[in-house]
Write a structure and sequence with these properties.
- The protein starts with 5 loop residues before the first strand and ends with a helix.
- The protein has 171 residues and is mainly beta.
- The chain is built from 1 helix and 13 strands.
- It is globular and about 50 Å long.
- The strands form 4 sheets. The chain has a 4-stranded antiparallel β-sheet, with no helix packed on it.
- A hairpin with a 4-residue loop joins strand 2 and strand 3 (21-24).
- The protein has one helix spanning 163-168, and strands at 6-10, 13-16, 21-24, 30-34, 42-44, 56-62, 68-73, 84-88, 96-100, 107-114, 122-128, 139-144, 153-155.
- The longest helix has 6 residues, at 163-168.
Length: 171
């Protein structure tokens, strides 16, 4: 129909200065959409966290077939909401939670990549929350071939030659 849609994942941030801590964008973060080349933006509604806070989006992918996939990261303001993957099948009008990263304390920050040839094939790279007090893997790679209708497959981490990667995973 000739209308381009632009999506923006706008996060919050923190700068821990020596005299005081500054929080950036504590109330404006969220998922935004423009249909007029970025002149006007509408904030879209993602589901809330279990504690009723807004989700801080991290990554957006438009998949084969037009589904809009969004992953989340922990909000700096609320310190929760990360590790989630949502999908919209109606151009961003509604989003449904499709997967929550649960490895080692759950996901904090999640990156996603949609296949450019296969619908519902999504790759996930997740920073884990580190529930364990001992040195352990800090990241996880997952793949779904059915849009998370079934649990995703955990993929092996890349082999690396440095000693840190052998304990924690690549960074």
């Amino acid at each position: 129909n000739g209308v381009s849609e632009i999506y923006a994942a706008v996060g919050d941030g923190i700068f821990p200065g020596t005299n005081k801590t500054t929080l950036f964008n504590p109330r404006g973060f969220g998922l935004y959409k423009s249909v007029d080349g970025g002149i006007n933006w509408v904030k879209l509604n993602l589901p809330l966290t279990d504690t009723g806070n807004e989700i801080c989006p991290n990554d957006i992918e438009i998949a084969v077939g037009g589904k809009v996939w969004v992953s989340s990261t922990d909000s700096r303001l609320y310190r929760n909401g990360g590790g989630k993957i949502f999908v919209s099948t109606d151009n961003g009008s509604t989003f449904t939670l499709k997967h929550t990263v649960v490895g080692n304390g759950g996901g904090q920050r999640v990156e996603i990549e949609a296949s450019n040839t296969t619908a519902d094939k999504i790759y996930v790279l997740a920073e884990l929350a580190q529930a364990s007090t001992t040195a352990t893997i800090e990241c996880q790679i997952l793949r779904t071939t059915d849009g998370f209708a079934t649990p995703p497959t955990e993929l092996s981490l890349p082999n690396d030659t440095d000693s840190r990667s052998a304990i924690y995973g690549f960074t």
